[in-house]
């Protein structure tokens, strides 16, 4: 869709400028211009012109002792007055006319052009130039002088290049939900006839980068209606009341352009719960109040649909969420395997890709990635292909770019000592072996000991075969055992431990704690929630909701759980000691091995 320029300034603005300019011009500039056009001559010239009868009008000013006169062609002259008894006689003979009026202009057309048209043109030009400069300086954002209280919403109008539902891959449920809105905007009469009213507001909720903005644009693109886009933070101004006035302006513009879509991104910036504290954030609250009022204010079925996006729905004010305002909530979740594959394909269409790329495998490797991350992975792959002077993107480019997104770039000049390299080999093979020797573990895809910019000295990549929605207690325990496998291998082989396991420790602890506090997987606590999750879509922080005594018991249980799995991992490695040595030596020499190579040695 094309962004269109914001509405022009009202005409009265230009009229004011012109009026001021004219005043200025007539008062100051005009006399100066006349002065400039007047030739000063000596008295002799005046007399000889009189004798030649080349005088038309004469004006005598005794106040400043000057005679102003014109010749037959209309040129203006000025001369100093001297004592001359015969002056009147002489002028009379010459046929001059004494009008008594001040001599100003000869050509009425020229006079009109000079006094009215020229100044208008000059000052309108200056005004235009200056307002353009100011707008540019403001950069479309809110500036302090211009556009105060104006919404400054970006307006997009329909165009053939607009985003359509087909461009948004996966997210079928969300699309289905929004398709109704498109239908309504196409044919509101059908809805009115039966008395059904469309929701005024629709809230898109989900983690960042899942395509909420894209979906909103796609609704406008499909419905072919104007699309106003504004971010919640753009309403918040330094001055109290400005945000509210921006809301008013936005809705005014939207109503003029109805049917249309208004999209407010990151609505939590203005829609946060009002906490009732005196002296709170007045500006934000006023803006929110105005938004609530505006949403109540417009009658149903007037063709303005408000879409808003947020990744913190729990922080929104309940008044905003009640029916009649944002009464429909459309979840836009992280894509599943099928969705990821579709998103990869949509983005791969924009670049040149080899025919044999296995999108399903890449989608499986990128489990948990959002749409934006997948778009990034495809682009990283394309960049890598260019770097390596290839004409198109291959499977390995895409696989490598997933690793770049997960672990960062390869550190080319990080030099590990031989001992360190050996420890890292054993550590990684420890993970892989424990994973492979347990049931219900995802197969090992790749093991590498090439250091990465994220600080990882190596890693083992496991890739699930399909979608995984549920995890059993055993699977979670196995996962903890796999995390502890690296450290267990170091202990068995080298008899000492290193700092390399810090990330494993963190992950194992997080999982073990969640099992006990959130998933009810510890019989002592039965089905009691000991932790509540906040910010579901933004990392999912959890806060404990239990007594101090219980917290102590939870800590003990976590330690016990991890220890049991650690012992189990060590046991598995001891039983497979020969394989551990063999694969670690192999990895030490190759630095990167595939899952197949690993399984081949393991099963030989
Ligand atoms: P959000 O508003 O949810 O944070 P955006 O809509 O801004 O996310 O998405 C960011 C980018 O991610 C988009 O420009 C697009 O390239 C990509 N993207 C996200 N979801 C999808 C999807 N479902 N299909 C295709 N591309 C997507």
Question: What key attributes describe this structure?
Answer:
604 residues; alpha/beta; Signal recognition particle alu RNA binding heterodimer, srp9/1; Rossmann fold; 5 domains; seven-stranded mixed sheet; five-stranded mixed sheet; 17 strands; binds adenosine-5'-diphosphate
Structure explained in plain terms:
The protein is an alpha/beta fold and 604 residues long. The chain has helices at residues 11-37, 43-51, 87-94, 108-138, 172-186, 188-194, 212-223, 242-257, 268-271, 282-297, 318-321, 337-348, 359-365, 371-387, 395-407, 418-436, 473-494, 502-517, 548-575, 577-590, 595-603, and strands at residues 2-4, 39-40, 57-61, 66-70, 76-80, 97-98, 154-157, 201-205, 227-231, 260-265, 304-310, 326-331, 444-448, 459-462, 531-533, 542-544, 592-594. The strands form four sheets. A seven-stranded mixed beta sheet has the order 1-7-9-10-11-8-12. A five-stranded mixed beta sheet has the order 2-5-4-3-6, covered by helices on one side. Residues 139-147 have low confidence and may be disordered. Adenosine-5'-diphosphate (ADP) is lined by residues 168-171, 208-214, 309, 343, 346, 371-372, 375.
């Amino acid at each position: 869709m094309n962004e269109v320029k914001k509405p022009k300034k009202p005409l009265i603005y230009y009229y004011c400028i012109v009026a001021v300019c004219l005043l200025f011009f007539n008062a100051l500039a005009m006399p100066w211009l006349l002065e400039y056009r007047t030739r000063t001559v000596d008295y002799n010239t005046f007399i000889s012109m009189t004798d030649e009868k080349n005088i038309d009008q004469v004006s005598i000013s005794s106040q400043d002792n000057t005679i102003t006169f014109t010749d037959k062609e209309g040129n203006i002259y000025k001369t100093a007055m001297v004592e001359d008894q015969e002056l009147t006689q002489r002028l009379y003979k010459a046929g001059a006319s004494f009008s008594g009026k001040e001599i100003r202009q000869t050509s009425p057309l020229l006079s009109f052009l000079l006094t009215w048209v020229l100044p208008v043109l000059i000052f309108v030009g200056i005004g235009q130039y200056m307002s353009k400069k100011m707008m540019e300086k403001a950069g479309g954002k809110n500036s302090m002088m211009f556009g105060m209280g104006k919404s400054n919403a970006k307006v997009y109008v329909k165009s053939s290049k607009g985003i359509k539902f087909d461009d948004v891959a996966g997210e079928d449920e969300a699309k289905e939900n929004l398709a109704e809105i498109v239908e309504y905007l196409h044919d509101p009469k059908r809805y009115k006839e039966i008395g059904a009213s469309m929701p005024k507001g629709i809230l898109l909720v989900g983690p960042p980068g899942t395509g909420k903005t894209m979906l909103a644009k796609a609704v406008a693109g499909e419905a072919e209606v104007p699309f106003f886009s504004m971010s919640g933070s753009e309403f918040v101004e330094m001055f109290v009341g400005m945000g509210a006035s921006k809301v008013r302006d936005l809705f005014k513009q939207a109503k003029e352009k109805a049917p249309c879509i208004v999209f407010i991104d990151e609505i939590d910036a203005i829609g946060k719960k009002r906490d009732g504290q005196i002296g709170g954030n007045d500006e934000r609250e006023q803006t929110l109040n105005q938004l609530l009022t505006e949403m109540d204010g417009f009658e149903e079925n007037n063709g303005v649909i408000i879409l808003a996006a947020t990744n913190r729905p729990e922080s929104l004010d309940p008044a905003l969420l009640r029916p009649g305002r944002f009464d429909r909530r459309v979840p836009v979740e992280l894509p599943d395997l099928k969705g990821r594959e579709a998103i990869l394909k949509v983005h791969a269409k924009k670049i040149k890709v080899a025919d044999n790329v296995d999108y399903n495998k890449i989608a499986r490797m990128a489990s948990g990635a959002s749409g934006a991350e997948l778009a990034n992975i495809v682009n990283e792959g394309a960049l890598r292909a260019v770097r390596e002077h290839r004409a198109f993107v291959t499977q390995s480019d895409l696989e490598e770019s997933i690793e770049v997104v997960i672990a960062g770039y390869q550190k080319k000049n990080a030099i590990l000592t031989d001992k360190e390299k050996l420890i890292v080999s054993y550590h990684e093979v420890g993970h892989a072996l424990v994973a492979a020797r347990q049931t219900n573990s995802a197969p090992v895809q790749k093991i590498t000991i090439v250091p990465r910019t994220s600080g990882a000295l190596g890693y083992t990549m496991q890739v699930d075969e399909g979608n995984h929605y549920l995890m059993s207690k055993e699977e979670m325990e196995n996962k903890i055992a796999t995390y502890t496998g690296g450290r267990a291998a170091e202990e068995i082989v080298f008899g000492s431990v290193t700092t390399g396991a810090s990330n494993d420790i963190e992950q194992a602890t997080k999982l073990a704690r969640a099992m006990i506090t959130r998933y009810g997987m510890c019989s002592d606590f039965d089905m009691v929630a000991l932790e509540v999750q906040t910010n579901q879509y933004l990392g999912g922080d959890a806060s404990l909701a239990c007594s101090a005594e219980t917290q102590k018991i939870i800590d003990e249980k976590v330690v016990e759980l991890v220890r049991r799995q650690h012992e189990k991992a060590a046991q598995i490695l001891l039983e497979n000691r020969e394989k551990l040595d063999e694969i670690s030596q192999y990895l030490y020499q190759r630095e990167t091995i595939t899952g197949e190579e690993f399984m081949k040695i393991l099963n030989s």
